[in-house]
Write a structure and sequence with these properties.
Helix content: over 70%
Strand content: under 5%
Number of strands: 2
Length: 452
Amino acid sequence: MENDSRQYVSDGLNRQQKKTIEKKERTIRLLKLGIWLYFFLLIFEGALRKWFLPGLSEALLIIRDPLGIAMILLAWQRNLFPQVTYVTLMFIIGIGAIFTALFLGHGNLFVTLFGARILLIHFPLIFIIGTFFDRQDVIKMGKTVVWISIPMALLIALQFYSPQSALVNRGVGGNMAGSGFSGAMGYFRPSGTFSFTNGTTLFFSLAASYIFYFWLSPRQINKIILLGATVGLLIAIPFSISRGLTFSVVIIIAFMLFTVSRKPKFLGQIIVAGLGVMIAMLFIGKADFFTTALDVMATRFDNAARSEGGLEGTLGDRYLGGMIEAVTSSVDMPFFGQGIGMGTNAGSALLSGGRTFLISEGEWGRLIGEMGALMGLSVIAIRLLVSWRLFVESLRLLKMGEILPWMLLSFALLVFPQGQWAQPTTLGFSTLIVGLLIASFNKEGSIVNNTN
């Protein structure tokens, strides 16, 4: 009788444990689905705002925010929200910035909430992605990026040669003036499926990190697709007329070469990749449609070099973005800043009636100008500390033969420490890439198997 009672209790506990595990697995599946939805909304949000739902363009600007809130609340409700000190600190800063903006700053509630959502929604999402995705999920998303890069390259080539009045170049809200931005020789920088041209740069930078990773690990993807994506990347560089993309690809290639220097076994894959690029260049290198884009790109570089003082000025403005000046000038700012959200385009439009930089075009200058020296520098410090931790862990794994984190780091370091989070597309890519980088540290099924 006693044994029967023990068996009954044991069966009851096993059933309860099974229900707990099943509930956790359902939650994880929902969160993973949410991450994929966040990714597709990031890629195609601009297409919705320009072509399919132009009448809802203003609302679609923050379409990923409700999704992010739902994911955070779901993880919190099921006691699965990642316990990360950085998130806690950013939450405290975000709440503090709301109060100082309302009572000591600009005082506009909508501008305040628009600015605070960066710290309270998107920053925590980094660690949601990093916790509930694993290495295989990161690779699956990478394959999707590689697939999308092929039609995306064709799209920006079509936009490059089409007038701004064409449907393919339609602006946000159906604006007939077009979504392109001034480039050179009468050609405009194309925006792809994004609201603004920076989306093209960010997408192909992400694609480049994955493309070069797959060349180092070619067994994980179809070779024809990989070659097609490589051609797409080669096309995208001149057709984007983007110095930022060129700079990003050079940095990502440098990370790949460092991988080979540390792990000579990858030299064979690099040679194969080089041959693939040479073959691609033989097909497109002499075509008129491609040489025209190269000429436009060269003119763009030449004009920018003259106006910015050569390579030093170009790279300084492109990556450093006035960071040193932002810190040194913080003593002239109000201690609690002028109010969070004021430095965003949406915030400036609400406060001034037009889109202008009310605080600073540079990210660090915006943070300090909005929140003051204490909170602004604290946000900068958190971003730098996270970047350092990611660098250390990725390098450690590289020494062990894991190259995926290192290649993702190549893009993450370009967009996370000083990326302009006031711009929704940049914010989205920064959130996504750092989340994917953290997730690449996870073994397959590691979160599901952890039932504590």
